């Protein structure tokens, strides 16, 4: 048993689920001495030890599962979620790491679903769809014996007593995506409950066995997405009052070779000011700083909260220094100046200006500028899991406006530089360029990381991944960026309200009230005004009539030309009015963020 999994019970990695009308019974495979019982009527949870196999329900009602994700309360009562299919993706520090492939949720009390009205059942189904929407977003990962919420350096530095705690109790809450679902399990006094609970992270993991110069090593990339201030691209920006920022991701690059373990950590996160960029049907809504909020207090809270985890922080701000993004950059720069912290350094690099006309080679200017700092930070390096050779003393905090496309390009370049240094130090790579086969793998993995993090935040794959994959900007890559940009536009305007609600429900920011089905109207019910139906209909009819008048007549007469002019004018008028009243047609959040979003639109939209 390694130091990382000393306190874990079992460890178990598969369970039998017995489902009978009055209870769920979860039993570790090959160990019937311990059983978790969930009463389907009262919701009571307990662990018992006096069971034997003959005390269990009929084996015909059992099925194989791989862990409990937790419980969520909806209109029809509590639902329990199980992991029903998994895929082993490799090992970290000798411990198995799994990706969730399939989950299932079951009502604790099925009779409640049967006595609901059709309207109530429809609302309940919407909530179920939200939970399933999040669980279908790639990817969720877990381990029975390794704490994926901690990077290697933090795991090494924790006290021995801390490691004796069950995994779900000691995991970093910033990265436990089912923390809310496990609430009822946290309240149980039995230490054995940890053998059944599976804390999961959301993000990206790639574990690869590599060979360079005949030397075999494991290269792993782990991106942990924070569940604090989680949300969608345009509805969740900036910082909250607790200092949590949107799209915060910790990315760790690990090398394991002949007893050596190396770790290099980077972070990304939205600019820690109070600012918004809500969708309004425009291609690129203007970001706006919320002046009435105390931005300095938020900046201070954010960086102070990060210091215990990462030490010295170097901000790499890649946003435009003029135009719409320019105001945000100036405010951020000024906030860091007023913060006046020796532990926080600000580096601005106008990515679009510096790399215009496809001069992406100019990114090396930034890498060279921070090279000395990166060398001073060093990396975490451990021998035989006990002898500390070096620690990482600081972290690069990279951001662009979304913390996606530009951010990933720069992070991959910093990771490549760190990788070259550590491979030389371990004697894997001596001189010259990195092995071509490995370099290809490196680029593909970092591009995959970019795509997955982007899908989780924006709904589409990342932009600019052609540079990450090939080392140069290509026309095919630009066409792919155009497709992804259009897809982002559609999803951000017409689907992200539902997705934001799904995140808030899954993470516990919004709790479903039992009164929603009786005493008060559900927030899911939205009353649409006449404009919502009239203007899009007129626009579609006008476009149809315009093209009919252009295509159908064998020859144009004065009457047909006037008809074309009329319907063309109707297209212009209805399109202009629709764009002016854009927020009316945007899919907005209806649950936790409803009041905030509605207030913004009332203040800022004419």
TrEMBL record:
**UniProt EC number:** 3.1.3.64
Q: Name one GO molecular function term.
A: phosphatidylinositol-3-phosphate phosphatase activity
**Where do the TM regions start and end?**
64-83, 532-552, 564-586
Residue ranges of coiled coil: none
GO cellular component, alphabetical, reads: endoplasmic reticulum
Per UniProt, the keywords (alphabetical) are:
Membrane, Transmembrane, Transmembrane helix
Q: Per the record, what are the reactions this protein catalyses?
A: a 1,2-diacyl-sn-glycero-3-phospho-(1D-myo-inositol-3-phosphate) + H2O = a 1,2-diacyl-sn-glycero-3-phospho-(1D-myo-inositol) + phosphate; a 1,2-diacyl-sn-glycero-3-phospho-(1D-myo-inositol 4-phosphate) + H2O = a 1,2-diacyl-sn-glycero-3-phospho-(1D-myo-inositol) + phosphate
Q: A GO BP term, please?
A: phosphatidylinositol dephosphorylation
Top-level taxon of origin: Eukaryota
SAC domain location:
131-459
Q: What is this protein called?
A: Phosphatidylinositol-3-phosphatase SAC1
């Amino acid at each position: 048993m390694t130091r990382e999994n000393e306190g874990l019970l079992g460890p178990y990695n598969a369970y039998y689920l017995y489902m009978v009308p009055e209870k769920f019974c979860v039993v570790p495979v090959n160990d019937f001495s311990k059983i978790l019982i969930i009463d389907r009527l009262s919701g009571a949870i307990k662990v018992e030890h006096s069971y034997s196999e003959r005390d269990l329900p009929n084996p015909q009602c059992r099925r194989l599962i791989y862990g409990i994700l937790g419980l969520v309360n909806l209109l029809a009562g509590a639902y329990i979620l199980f992991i029903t299919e998994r895929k082993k993706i490799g090992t970290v520090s000798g411990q198995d790491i799994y990706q969730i492939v399939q989950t299932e949720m079951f009502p604790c009390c099925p009779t409640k679903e049967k006595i609901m009205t059709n309207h109530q059942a429809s609302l309940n189904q919407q909530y179920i769809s939200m939970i399933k929407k999040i669980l279908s977003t790639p990817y969720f990962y877990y381990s029975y014996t390794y704490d994926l919420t901690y990077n290697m350096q933090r795991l090494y530095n924790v006290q021995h007593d801390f490691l004796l705690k069950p995994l779900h109790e000691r995991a970093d809450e910033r990265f436990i995506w089912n923390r809310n679902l496990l609430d009822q399990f946290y309240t149980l006094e039995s230490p054995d409950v940890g053998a059944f609970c599976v804390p999961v992270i959301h993000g990206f993991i790639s574990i690869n066995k590599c060979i360079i110069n005949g030397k075999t090593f494991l290269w792993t990339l782990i991106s942990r997405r924070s569940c604090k201030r989680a949300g969608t691209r345009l509805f969740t920006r900036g910082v909250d009052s607790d200092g949590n920022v949107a799209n915060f991701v910790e990315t760790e690059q690990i090398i394991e070779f002949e007893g050596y373990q190396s770790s290099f950590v980077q972070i990304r996160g939205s600019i820690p000011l109070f600012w918004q960029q809500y969708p309004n049907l425009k291609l690129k809504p203007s970001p706006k700083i919320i002046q009435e909020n105390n931005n300095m207090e938020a900046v201070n809270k954010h960086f102070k909260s990060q210091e215990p985890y990462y030490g010295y922080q170097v901000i790499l701000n890649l946003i435009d220094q003029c135009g719409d993004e320019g105001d945000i950059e100036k405010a951020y720069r000024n906030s860091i100046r007023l913060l006046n912290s020796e532990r926080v350094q600000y580096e601005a690099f106008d990515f679009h200006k510096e790399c215009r006309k496809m001069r992406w080679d100019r990114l090396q200017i930034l890498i060279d500028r921070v090279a000395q700092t990166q060398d001073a930070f060093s990396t975490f390096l451990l021998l035989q899991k006990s002898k500390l050779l070096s620690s990482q003393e600081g972290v690069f905090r990279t951001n662009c406006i979304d913390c996606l496309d530009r951010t990933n390009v720069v992070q991959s370049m910093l990771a490549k530089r760190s990788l070259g240094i550590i491979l030389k130090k371990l004697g894997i790579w001596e001189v010259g360029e990195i092995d071509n086969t490995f370099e290809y793998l490196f680029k593909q993995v970092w591009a995959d990381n970019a795509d997955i993090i982007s899908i989780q935040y924006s709904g589409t794959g990342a932009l600019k991944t052609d540079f990450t994959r090939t080392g140069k900007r290509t026309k095919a890559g630009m066409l792919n960026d155009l497709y992804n940009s259009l897809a982002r536009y559609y999803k951000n305007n017409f689907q992200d309200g539902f997705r934001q609600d799904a995140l808030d429900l899954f993470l516990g920011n919004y709790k479903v009230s039992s009164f929603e089905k009786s005493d008060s109207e559900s927030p899911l019910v939205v009353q649409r005004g006449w404009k919502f139906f009239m203007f899009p209909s007129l626009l579609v009819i006008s476009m149809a009539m315009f093209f009919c008048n252009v295509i159908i007549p064998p020859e144009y007469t004065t009457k047909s030309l006037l008809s074309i002019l009329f319907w063309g004018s109707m297209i212009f008028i209805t399109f202009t009015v629709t764009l002016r009243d854009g927020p009316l047609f945007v899919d907005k959040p209806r649950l936790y963020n409803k009041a905030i979003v509605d207030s913004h639109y009332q203040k800022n939209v004419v």
